Q: What sequence folds into this?
């Protein structure tokens, strides 16, 4: 089961998204709202989500900044939703060990 954290879930669109995603059997969905970036980081460490959904309109943080604040977190996917344009961006953080040149080059290729 994948854990998913919806940030800004108290706003109408965030709450609706959290409600819709909660109906998916393969997802364990959590919602969180704050204006404090450090509180968000603490909540991420507490819940340990696989995916975080941020709203592009939020001024709380950016995916790049959040990945910087979580250097030892491990694998994480951040989805940035732009509700005005229905466009979303996916940011992935993955850690790999390259044992040789071939394993390094293999990880550079897009799947």
A:
């Amino acid at each position: 089961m994948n854990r998913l954290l919806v940030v800004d879930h108290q706003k109408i669109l965030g709450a609706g998204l959290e409600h819709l995603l909660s109906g998916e059997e393969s997802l364990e969905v959590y919602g969180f709202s704050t204006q404090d970036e450090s509180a968000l980081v603490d909540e991420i460490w507490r819940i340990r989500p696989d995916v975080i959904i941020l709203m592009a309109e939020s001024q709380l943080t950016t995916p790049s900044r959040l990945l910087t604040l979580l250097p030892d977190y491990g694998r994480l996917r951040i989805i940035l939703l732009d509700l005005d344009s229905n466009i979303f961006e996916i940011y992935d953080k993955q850690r790999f060990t390259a044992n040789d040149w071939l394993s390094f080059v293999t990880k550079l290729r897009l799947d």
